[in-house]
Amino acid sequence: MRKIRKGDNVVVIAGRDKGKRGDVARVVDAEHVIVGGINSVKRHSRPNPLKNQPGGIVSKDMPIHISNVAIWNPVTGKPDRVGVRVLEDGRRVRFFKSNGEQVGI
Fold first, then answer.
1. Kind and range of the H or E run holding 64
2. CB within 8 A of 1, min separation 6: which ones?
3. Which CATH number is 9-79 given?
4. Which of 18, 22, 72, 102 could disulfide-link to 35, CB 3.0 to 4.6 Å?
5. 105 band by pLDDT with thresholds 50, 70 and 90
6. How many whole angstroms separate alpha carbon 48 and alpha carbon 67?
7. Per-domain residue ranges for the chain?
8. Contact indicator for 41, 59 with CB cutoff of 8 Å
9. For strand 69-73 and strand 78-80, is the pairing parallel, antiparallel, or unpaired?
């Protein structure tokens, strides 16, 4: 089970954008996520008339390593770690390590 999923509100804890918050837009692979508005770079793109695409400088969000983000705990107001627990009915749920509450109820 992934500890950080699409739609989670996360905080960057290391790197150029340290301290910024955003929502996970996409999980790229097991170790990288794309967070909206975080780790954005400027790319020079060539015009493509077949796709009706103009050229110029485009801002693009790049993947960030999952170890550099922490999920935001709205109860404590701080970034937090996530654990996985198995309930009595066999479901696996994520929970915050600091207070034990379930993530995304």
1. strand 64-65
2. 84, 92, 94
3. 2.30.30.30
4. 22
5. low
6. 37
7. 9-79
8. yes
9. antiparallel
Alpha carbons 5 and 53: distance in angstroms, whole number:
31
- This prediction's pTM: 0.83
Single-letter code of the amino acid located at 65:
H
Q: Whole-angstrom distance between the N-terminal and C-terminal Cα of the chain? A: 16
Phi, psi of 36 (to 5 degrees): -60, 125
- What are residue 24's DSSP bridge partners? 35
Q: What is the mean pLDDT of residues 35-41?
A: 94
Contact 97, 80 (CB under 8 A): yes
The pair of structure tokens assigned to 54 is 């103009």
- How far apart are the C-alpha atoms of 38 and 43, rounded to whole Å? 15
Compute the half-sphere exposure of residue 39: CA atoms within 13 Å on the CB side of its CA.
20
CA 36 from centroid of its chain's CA atoms: 8
